[in-house]
Amino acid sequence: MSQTYDLVVIGAGSGGVRAARIAANLGAKVAIIEEYRVGGTCVIRGCVPKKLFVYASRFTDMFSVAESFGWQVDAKFDWPTLVANKDKEIARLEAAYVAGLEKPGVEIIRDRGVLVDANTVRLVNEGRDLSAKYILIATGGHPYVPDIPGKEHGITSNEAFHLKRLPHSILIEGGGYIAVEFATIFAGLGVQTTINYRGNQILRGFDADVRTSLEAGLEARGIKLIYETTIRSLKRHDNDVVVEFSDGTTAPYGAVMFATGRRANIHGLGLDKAGVAMTPDNFISVDSFSKTSVDSIYAVGDVTGRAALTPVAIREGQAFAETIFGGNPTSVDLSLLPTAVFAEPEVGVIGLTEEEALTGHPDLEVYVTRFRPMMNTLSTRSERVMMKLITAANGGKVLGVHIVGPSAAEMIQLVAIPMAMGATKADFDRAIAVHPTAAEELVTFKAPTYRYKDCVKV
Ligand code: NDP
């Protein structure tokens, strides 16, 4: 049977939009199906609105040092103004995404698409079938909420973007990216904020110095950290939510937010009908070219569970289109992923943690510096920036860079370039410092702070 489309994409988020646009530019006949808004999690209820909220929350830090620079500030914050302006910006970006699809001729179909077989997608509302040579699943993910009594009284990041008013206090369950980012947003906007984490330190998997520095930074901003407990149940009482913790204690909060990870959007997609295999964690299983177990079906982005990061989804979408429609087989190398946590203080990391580096490199050099950012030096604020460089022995390859402090995300993006080129400590040393900056510390490290020889710290 001849196919109507060369490509049908299910899901118009970061990965799906990029794949559709590039495929159409390469001459393919493409349709993209979206049941919600064009732009996906990142644009509509993720990275972009989150960063706008982060900007809003950071004025508190600025005000705290303003007086030391001679400013008198009498500031008031209005939450509805922020939400309305954020919504306007998101609508503008969504329109830009739509235009970016329409220009190369991608057909945008507002419906829910489900698989019928390896080459057919059904539009649930229209009841019509589309046949396609290739199908790309880019349906993303959604917040996971633990199945506890009263869970409906909690919110997730989805709802946090549209709260009618700010709560007087909030308890955030989880210790990952979303928990710490939203904790600093709420705390910065004046909400009494508590993080409740089942582990013994936030940001599991990050370098130990990053975790400790961020923890100190959160506490310095008045965020309370409760460790080794979970929420057992929630009950509503007047305008508050009463939390029962796993240790049996209870406390009321103005709101409770779950930031307990995300799951793939696969429910009812018809993956079984088409014979698409899953990973043990219930993500779509793909090879390095994003091909599923079915030759005509590919998947990119969060639904594959590789790395739930927008730039990764975009790369995967681009690589898919290049591979299938550009005659240029392209796989995505995810071995060196820079990442940032837009908390306050900010975190930027790339490469191996000290613990990870030691597993493959018994001889290491570690350079660590902690200093007050210049912005704070006129004030009494004592917070320090933390920068850490982990290299192979004798000025060898830079294996990991970890930064906590202002502009850490911007710095780590640029560090990603020499890291991708396989830079050594000697390469970093050759770079001339830009003064006065925080980043200059990365190119002016002299002797290692400590070394490892045969995995023993010396
Ligand atoms: P994360 O996986 O980062 O964190 C989830 C947290 O919830 C962990 O601390 C985890 O604990 C905890 N948790 C999981 N299940 C339970 C449970 N049943 N009860 C109590 N606690 C639980 O997920 P997020 O939701 O924060 O973010 C999802 C992903 O989105 C991130 O991993 C990241 O890839 C991406 N993201 C990226 C951002 C960025 O680039 N700046 C910003 C936001 C999200 P434990 O550590 O013990 O497993």
From TrEMBL:
NAD(+) binds at G174, G175, G176, Y177, I178, A179, V180, E181, G261. GO terms for cellular component: cytosol. It holds the Pfam family Pyr_redox_dim. Signal peptide: none annotated. It catalyses: 2 glutathione + NADP(+) = glutathione disulfide + NADPH + H(+). The keyword Flavoprotein applies. Belongs to the class-I pyridine nucleotide-disulfide oxidoreductase family. Homodimer. This is Glutathione reductase. It comes from Paradevosia tibetensis.
